[in-house]
Amino acid sequence: MDLSALYRDLAHRPADAAAALPVLASDVLNGHPGGHPNSPAWLLWHAARQMDAQLAQLAGADEVWADGWRERLNLGPAGDGIGYGDRTEDAARIVSDDQEGLTEYLVAVCSAAARYAESLRDGQWDEIIDDSYDPPVTRAARLVSIIDDAAQHVGQVAYVAGMPSL
């Protein structure tokens, strides 16, 4: 089995799902269904940011965020985080009417993940990259985890998009 090819396909799925979302009105994109702190805008941003930061660490490379996305998305200092452990007030700082930009950022990050997978050789997938967990985390497990996280968050946006109203 060609793990790189498999992961390349997997890596694009969150971006494909985000691109298939209907255009959301600003009040929906920045709304908080049921009072939940994470808006659809936050979910799209976090899907890309968590993936970007973790991928950059694995690859020993700069984050895609540094390629002008900070300026394009204009989320201020809150946008520089990744969303893990955000308090309600932290999540509320992510406000955007640029669904297209958030989606394009996710597309760019997913493309970077696919390119990274292409660079890996078979033995590198099994390499332990974090032994602070039991069992220790392999490169493959971390890569699947960041895609899974992104896919779940985009799925949450799709659920909200399908609601008759907030």
UniProtKB/TrEMBL annotation:
Transmembrane segments: none
InterPro entries referenced in this protein's UniProt entry, alphabetically: DinB-like (IPR024775), DinB/YfiT-like (IPR034660)
Residues covered by the DinB-like domain: 16-157
Origin: domain of life: Bacteria
Gene3D superfamilies for the chain: dinb family like domain
Protein name per the record: DUF664 domain-containing protein
